[in-house]
Design brief:
This protein has 10 helices and 10 strands. The protein is of the alpha/beta class. The longest helix has 21 residues. The structure holds adenosine-5'-diphosphate and magnesium ion (MG). The site of magnesium ion has 3 residues, from helix 1.
């Protein structure tokens, strides 16, 4: 049984089809990168999975269960969501930000405190950031808090919308690697939107290419490259290799 199953999803905004006939089944434990040009429907697809966007047609199943059978807020507690702009509450401390969902769930204070400590440790943040305001953190640290907050109620599914897009390349690399390790350790199912094909190839088991609201290609990085005949998909997938080759030429054989 897939962890996430979208069947024949259509979503229109006025005359514009944001998603058209999308079928996508994601197995438990998979790490999927969702790539595609701006406006191709990536965010809409993520929001369809957690019920923030209601499809005009088609069905969404989470662990075999029809998503419509669950009230939206309950669905979203089972599914962690990390936004592009992090979206931490600026007037709350780091600990309070992480505790938002546990509070809503009515956990008692000692349990929340234990969970916050555990989550800070999990995302490799020092315990002393707990009392700070988000503005007192670096961009990378804020994004780690975003991941911790999304994981607070132990979801099995994580949706991430360009989570590392605004970070410098080194921070981005470190966070991507750390998140992949977390995904494996916690046995998560992850769908990550990224603009960066190198990031997709390095982190994901499977790459789904969206264009104009349709899935243009879907497969493991190597098999996609071997099988796709679509020039756009081929160009996208070859970009990281071309970049690596140019780097090697400029920096010498050791790079
Ligand atoms: P992506 O995340 O790939 O950039 P989106 O899913 O945000 O794409 O958007 C897909 C298309 O749907 C775009 O053309 C966008 O303008 C349109 N769209 C998305 N959300 C809305 C909305 N709430 N109202 C109107 N149009 C929208
Ligand atoms: Mg988007």
């Amino acid at each position: 049984m897939p962890a996430i199953e979208l069947s024949n999803i259509d979503k229109r905004f006025g005359a514009h089809a944001a998603l058209a006939g999308v079928d996508l089944a994601i197995a438990a434990g998979e790490f999927v990168a969702l790539v595609g040009p701006s406006g191709s429907g990536k965010t809409t697809l993520l929001k369809t999975i957690n019920g923030l966007s209601e499809p005009d047609a088609g069905s969404v199943r989470i662990a075999g269960e029809d998503a419509r059978a669950l009230p939206g807020h309950l669905l979203r507690r089972k599914i962690g969501y990390v936004f592009q702009e992090v979206g931490l509450f600026p007037h709350l401390t780091v600990a309070e930000n992480i505790a938002v969902t546990p509070r809503l769930l009515g956990w008692d204070k000692p349990r929340i405190a234990r969970r916050v400590d555990e989550l800070l440790d999990l995302v490799a943040l020092p315990a002393e950031v707990a009392g700070r305001a988000p503005s007192e953190l670096s961009g990378g640290q804020r994004q780690r808090v975003g991941v911790a907050r999304a994981l607070a109620a132990e979801p099995k599914i994580m949706l991430m919308d360009e989570p590392f897009g605004a970070l410098d390349p080194l921070t981005r690399d470190a966070l991507g690697g750390d998140y992949r390790a977390l995904h494996d350790k916690l046995g998560l199912t992850t769908v990550m939107v990224t603009h960066d094909m190198a990031e997709a190839v390095l982190l994901a088991d499977r790459i789904v290419v969206l264009a104009g609201g349709r899935i243009l290609a879907d497969g493991g990085p190597a098999s996609l490259l071997a099988t796709t005949t679509d020039p756009e998909v081929r160009g996208l997938l070859e970009a990281p290799r071309r970049q690596a080759e140019r780097l090697r030429e400029r920096l010498g054989g050791g790079a």
